[in-house]
Amino acid sequence: MEVGKEIEQFQYKYNSMDGIIISALKRFDKWNFGTKDKILFFKELSYLIQWWVSLNEAVKIIWEASESFALKEIAKNVSDFLYRWKSLSYAINRLPDYFDEWDYNIIKSWEWSGNLPIVLKSLANEYVFVSDIKNKYISALLYPIILIVIAIVAVLALFLLVLPNVFSIADSFPAAQLPWITQMLRNISTFLQFQRKLLIWIIWWLAIVLSVFFSTDAGKKTRFNILLNIPLIWKMTKYFYLVRWCRYMKLMFDAWMNYVQTFQLLRNILRIPAYQIMIENVITWLDKWETIYAGLKYETELIPSDVSVMIKVWEETANLPKCIDNVLKMYEEELNLIINRLAKVIEPIMLIFIGGIVVVIALWVFWLILQIMEGAGL
């Protein structure tokens, strides 16, 4: 009997621990649900429907076959709504932790057209493209930042590790006269040595303050304006957001949304204050029964003037989607070229900058050694 009780207690503990681990994994999966999971869900659903599987059965297959707890939970919830005779867009709209207003509106616009597989595939492809170009853009921005950090670390290492040893040798020769440049280096090195904690504290709090500020609308606008004013980066930033704006707009036009609906949705998707202000301006003109061009022609900082003119021409010919296609062909290629060139241009500039700093400090140190040798009568 006692052995049986012990076995039951062991099984209870094992099952409890197993349940805790599974629930933790489910929560972790839910928190880490991202673009890749959404792409997978849309693609699988699109393929299954194209193979003449009903929407209900397609969602059920994803529910049963997926190894991701997040996808299982999504498919289960969507399946529950579908079995209650609700639409896919309705189900998507009831899962805000996983899907946004963009997904809901695009799916809703195409739902009754009989082209649901096409729109699901288009959504997946759009997320793939945006994710890819976003990663390239961030990588291109990170590269100069990494080089700058390396340069700062190299200079700090010289001031904290190399120069103090050189100055300690100079102190052993009282007759040596140090030039003013060397004295300045010595003062900087001494300050960095004895005020290390203060500097770390200031940098820490400055990073916190800036992170909080840049999370606000005013901070996002400031950050965007800074990027638009940095040499070599401003054009890449401008074209990156232009391409995103055009691709979103094209997909909405393909879904037969009218101009006002399109720009209202764009305003909510593009969470950049500068673009939101521009889009709000376009909506204001559209409400007055004016053209899109009327709202864009003064936005040359964000939208190149040639793009605005192309939009004007194609608006007059009632063929705006074709215009967006042409804009994308031009600027997607240009954006890729700029991103590829950026690393090649920045790398030699940063190497020259870092090398210049090291050479200047080395010359000052060499000058100091000469002064020590003269003071020692060598």
Note the main sheet.
none
- Total count of domains: 2
Weakly predicted, low-confidence segments: none
Q: Output the number of helix runs.
A: 16
On the 0 to 100 scale, the average pLDDT is: 76
Classify the helix fraction into a percent range. Answer: over 70%
Number of strands: 0
Rg result? 30 Å
Silhouette: elongated
| Distance linking N and C termini | 96 Å
Beta fraction of the residues?
Answer: under 5%
Question: How would you explain this protein's 3D organization?
Answer:
With 378 residues, the chain is mainly α. The chain folds into 2 domains: 21-99, no CATH class; 127-378, no CATH class. 82% of the residues lie in helices and 0% in strands. The chain is built from 16 helices and no strands. Helix 2 runs antiparallel to helix 7 (116-171), helix 11 packs across helix 12 (259-269) and helix 15 (305-316) packs antiparallel against helix 16. The protein is elongated and about 90 Å long. The mean pLDDT is 76.
Provide a compact summary of the structure.
This protein is mainly α.
Helix and strand topology:
Elements: H1 2-31, H2 35-50, H3 55-65, H4 69-83, H5 88-93, H6 101-111, H7 116-171, H8 180-194, H9 196-214, H10 217-227, H11 234-254, H12 259-269, H13 273-287, H14 292-296, H15 305-316, H16 320-375
Helix pairs in contact: 2-3, 2-7, 3-4, 6-7, 7-8, 7-11, 7-16, 9-10, 11-12, 11-16, 12-13, 15-16
